[in-house]
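So, could you explain the following?
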Amino acid sequence: MDRETLRQALCAYRSRYPEEAAYARRGCALLATGPDCFLRSGPGLHVTASSWVLNPAGDHVLLMLHRKLERWFQPGGHSDGDEDVQRVALKECSEETGLAAEHIHFLSHQIFDIDIHRIPARREEPEHHHLDIRFLVEIDDRLPLLGNSESHELRWVPLHEVHSYNRELSIHRLLVKSQDWLRQHRR
């Protein structure tokens, strides 16, 4: 997915969630006007990619306790100049789980969710915002997860317990969307 394909996808994106629809419109505009939006050094808002990871049974999601933010999130990270957000999501998921990319399977190559969230200022890094492009993937939960230095812990969380780990609206949206996806695709 190159920059123009992503821009078109964001411009055409429809969501039943008003905040997500607004994020897509803002992303569409950013990709049209922000030449450095795939660089973390770019001002303000920049593109990141992440993976909402389900196990094959569809009853657990993989969350990581983020070392810098001290909160539970899905694997993901900065594009660092790479305009292919699917590749970024896969790379970040592989790095953060310690699994080779061939163990990570896209359940859909379509954008699964879009979010814009604030990252607080830290030492050398000013406050900024991420335009996070999210994909739905699957990993076999029997595989050992080695993780990396970006998290304290990786954990398979039962879907019904996700809210006890993170109560943010965007995580709730991912949870509901994944439950809807499972009902539609795994009857």
Summary: The chain has four helices and eight strands. The mean pLDDT is 94.
